């Protein structure tokens, strides 16, 4: 067939008048051609569109964004409408089943139409998510949500129409994590290039264990880990590393490597061949250090908590004291985990001083930079990580402060070959030694996992799209917003900071005291009442769906708000809104 | 604004003639309206299309599927063409950067256009992947692939045009895991509903740790795990479980729970409080059992290998003998892992006999059904798992035989509450006890991970789309194909089966002897040469890109092919093709 026009489209032979440039002259003629040729089900839609519109059927506009009860069962335009019915009438999702899709014979068009329909639902959801008029969450209690929909699994298949309805229902009750006022976790926001990369990753549907099945992704992991090690400051980016399923697992890897480095026989002989070990981390560190110690058979009692100062930083003198104490008790200190960006306060432990102590006592120096590691990409803030280049291993989660879609966590390791020696089991069905390519790219045997999800592509593609300076700008902006918040509330009536001084990360920790509580004389009574304020305000935020921010107690401090900003969609106005909202929801308490 | 026509489209006020039914009468008028109203950037594309086509520009057809060297830099149609240039001219991706996308002000349309462009690339890739005329892989050696593209990460951002080029390049060199002739791993194929669900999961971009941030997904995990436990045969579906990042981690969880159940003090005190432990698994079991033992501080020497019979099944009498031996040596037997579907032979250990021994010696009975667990969904094949209902824990990977996109692995646990007790650390910044909803839905503290990827939605949505009977049909078909393969080659000249008898799973293990090797008298020489056959044929398969199948040695057996079928796209003809291809590529060896 001769090619005519963009995408090979032109007037079909029997489609009426043709002009000399082969462009179709009536919409109907054009769309008849399009229906057969356009990718992604677009053509079918156009045909449906024209034939329906041609019959004068009236449907509402698709411009609205707010969700309401009637969303489920509409076209994704989120207003009550009969679009879906019109689509169904033409495309017949109510007559189609998953078995009609690829690999079914002639399943191409149906597949493209179905996937395009899903994409349209997702695109509408994305637009909504960034709209401040939309709720962050349409909250329902678990039992209520279980009853609002039929979520059960049955023996019989459902139609694709039902599947699309399930997609809409799932999104209706989901948290809009891209929403500019979603501040609840260290991972917030939704990056469009990262999202595109994740869609591609799902489509490639492969596994990181060998070059054979993931050639590009394995190379991109190699390139990216090297770049990250260069940024850490390791000579020529040398060393090792892996992307793992989250910061907790990255930290567990670090502890595993530290133990193996000191006592390689532990791999075969287990902990019975090893003296009683001691690990050290600050009282503000992440719970995954203890979780790792429990799992690895070291035991939580072997994790010795080091005192933190008022702003949450580990006190090096206390570290040294506790190392000496442990040695006196017959423990062998093997692992120190300093935190670069603690979970609650956002504090950066003094890495240089800690590394000196680790060197003195020959202990593995790990930096848990799951939250704060990304600040090394900012020329303005990287000083907070001074000394990280001395680490034996570093956890760094691009899915937090760099807003890479979940999950994306790296463990970087200074010593080459150690991970391989520590974890390899030489499975000969997977890591055949007589393959025809360079086996050093079969990196799977250094992992604890066998199959490993492809987490690299979204980070790599975002890095290409933003450049290092793009990440820097994004990080700097979040820190600027948190400084704005800090300055705004530190002297404001009704607010009290949990610790003094400007926060080092985007964590701003504060109490809000409702007017009726501000002048209470009874300190115990005040504390008791204050403890209940944050949970109530948080519950109201969720019920109104206007914003979400976290709270918690810490040590002897009653519940306070922990505001964190990693969401690139947030602006100064959103910070203002948060404060107004806390005051609106809390004034009667 | 009044609504007119489907999707609210109609003729704009200045767009020429209107008919009484408000449908546009010229393509250009129609498309001008469409450009402003259509979701997903489709409208812009149409405008681009018409204005280009209107100027008589000639471009080739989009119907081709085969990749060639010129793909990178074209429109995704995979033929040398100037489509992209045409698109660029209109949509200007070469002038756009990621900072122009949402959350940028007025970033909606650009975002939709960009994401739609990515989706079009993905849809084209999907169509291609199912086309037998397309290569499974466009293979290049690592160093060559590193040089074929610029994969480096820079300081400066790239344009969205460059980003799209990177997406195309990545897919060009990727394995087409959906391809009907891709048999390389236990996880093959690409399910369209599963893919749609994974795209939605990426878009929701949240985390499984609390109900607060993943209300629907947490409920769906609850519903699905309960259903899976019912199928296992546990009363009323009671018990516990979790979706973990793969079978290796699921098995590690099981070992961790078994240890904790017997010695709960290990959590605080570590292995020094515990006697020397012994775990038992067959010599054909997956390497993750040893990997787990190494990580948990138990040590690989404490994993005692039980003899398997000729077809790869654990010999119960040897298990009992080795348990007694271990006890005599002072070890405490704590864990038996039976395999339901071994990695290489696809053998099912005799679960009932093994469970009797576990009961007798009061040892935790784990079933590693990562590969074979799914057969329980088939009325025809579930007998192979008889006894699984007696297990204390079961690993079951829907991402293998059920063709759910990677990753999707479940660990099911009989005893309620044990996971929570074993792993919880009560992080008060995440699992606040004064939340306003039922805290039993905050399931994160029973995980080893902190953040946990949402792996549930693709399984749940596929289950809704297929029903249990749909999974059953898919599984039965794969087993039918493997039986066809077995019958075809068992008496065929030049083939030798690695073990006698019909395989229990889809694994068919065989040697192919090229004609020149068949009548060699020197058995050692024959063995030596045969060992090299499979690697060479495999390398040639990859270089031609026609198919991919795995091979390995096992024990004293030289390299043999391990064919496995989990790809729902495969047909009898693909099996025929595989045999022809092995013979074509191997005849000269």
TrEMBL record, chains A, B:
Membrane topology: Peripheral membrane protein; Lipid-anchor
Record field: transmembrane: none
Cofactor: pyridoxal 5'-phosphate
Recorded GO MF terms: glutamate decarboxylase activity; pyridoxal phosphate binding
This protein's record includes keyword tRNA processing: no
Keywords, in A-Z order: Cell membrane, Cell projection, Cytoplasm, Cytoplasmic vesicle, Decarboxylase, Golgi apparatus, Lipoprotein, Lyase, Membrane, Neurotransmitter biosynthesis, Palmitate, Phosphoprotein, Pyridoxal phosphate, Synapse
Listed GO biological process terms: gamma-aminobutyrate shunt; gamma-aminobutyric acid biosynthetic process
Major subcellular site: cytoplasm
One term under GO cellular component: cytoplasmic vesicle
Biased composition (Polar residues): 16-26
Similarity field: Belongs to the group II decarboxylase family.
Function: Catalyzes the production of GABA.
Subunit: Homodimer.
Protein name as annotated: Glutamate decarboxylase 2
């Amino acid at each position: 067939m001769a090619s005519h026009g963009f995408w090979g489209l032109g007037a079909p032979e029997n489609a009426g008048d043709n002009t000399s440039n082969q462009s179709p002259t009536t919409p109907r003629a054009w769309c008849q051609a399009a229906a057969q040729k356009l990718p992604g089900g677009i053509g079918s839609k156009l045909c449906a569109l024209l034939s329906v519109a041609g019959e004068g059927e009236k449907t509402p506009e698709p411009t609205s964004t707010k969700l309401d009860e009637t969303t489920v069962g509409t076209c994704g335009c989120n207003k009550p409408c009969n679009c879906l019915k019109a689509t169904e009438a033409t495309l017949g999702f109510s007559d189609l089943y998953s078995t009609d899709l690829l690999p079914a014979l002639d399943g191409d068009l149906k597949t493209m139409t179905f996937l395009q329909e899903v994409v349209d639902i997702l695109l509408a959801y994305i637009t909504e998510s960034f709209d401040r008029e939309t709720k962050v969450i349409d909250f329902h209690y678990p039992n209520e949500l279980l009853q609002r929909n039929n979520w059960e699994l049955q023996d019989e298949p459902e139609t694709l129409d039902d599947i699309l309805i399930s997609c809409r229902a799932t999104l209706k009750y989901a948290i809009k994590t891209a929403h500019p006022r979603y501040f609840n976790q260290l991972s917030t926001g939704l990056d469009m290039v990262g999202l595109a990369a994740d869609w591609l990753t799902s489509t490639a549907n492969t596994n990181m264990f060998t070059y054979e099945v993931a050639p590009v992704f394995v190379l991109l992991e190699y390139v990216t880990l090297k770049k990250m090690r260069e940024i850490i400051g390791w000579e020529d980016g040398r060393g090792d590393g892996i992307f793992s399923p989250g910061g907790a697992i990255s930290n567990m890897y670090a502890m595993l490597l530290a133990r193996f480095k000191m006592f390689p026989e532990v791999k075969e002989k287990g902990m019975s061949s090893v003296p009683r070990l001691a690990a050290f981390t600050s009282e503000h560190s992440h719970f995954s250090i203890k979780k790792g110690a429990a799992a690895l058979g070291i035991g939580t009692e072997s994790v010795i908590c080091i005192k933190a100062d008022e702003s949450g930083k580990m006190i090096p003198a206390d570290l040294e004291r506790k190392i000496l104490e442990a040695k006196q008790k017959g423990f062998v200190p093997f692992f120190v985990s300093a935190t670069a960006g603690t979970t609650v306060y956002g504090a950066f432990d003094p890495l240089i001083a800690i590394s000196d102590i680790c060197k003195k006592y020959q202990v593995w120096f790990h930096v848990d930079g799951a939250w704060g590691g990304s600040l090394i990409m900012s020329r303005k803030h990287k000083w907070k990580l001074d000394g990280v280049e001395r680490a034996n291993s570093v956890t760094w989660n691009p899915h937090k402060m760099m807003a890479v879609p979940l999950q994306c966590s790296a463990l970087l390791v200074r010593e080459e070959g150690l991970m391989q020696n520590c974890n390899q089991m030489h499975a000969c069905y997977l890591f055949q030694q007589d393959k025809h390519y360079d086996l050093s790219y079969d990196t799977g045997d250094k992992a604890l996992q066998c199959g490993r999800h492809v987490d690299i592509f979204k980070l790599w593609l975002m890095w290409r799209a933003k450049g290092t300076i793009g990440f820097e700008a994004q990080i700097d902006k979040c820190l600027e917003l948190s400084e704005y918040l800090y300055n705004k509330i530190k002297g404001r009536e009704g607010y009290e900071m949990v610790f003094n001084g400007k926060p080092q990360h985007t964590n701003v920790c504060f109490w809000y005291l409702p007017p009726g509580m501000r002048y209470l004389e009874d300190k115990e009574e005040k504390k008791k009442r204050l403890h209940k304020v944050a949970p109530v305000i948080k519950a109201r935020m969720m019920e109104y769906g206007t914003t979400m921010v976290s709270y918690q107690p810490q040590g002897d401090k009653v519940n306070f708000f922990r505001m964190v900003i990693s969401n690139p969609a947030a602006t100064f106005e959103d910070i203002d809104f948060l404060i107004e909202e806390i005051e609106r929801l809390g004034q009667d308490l």
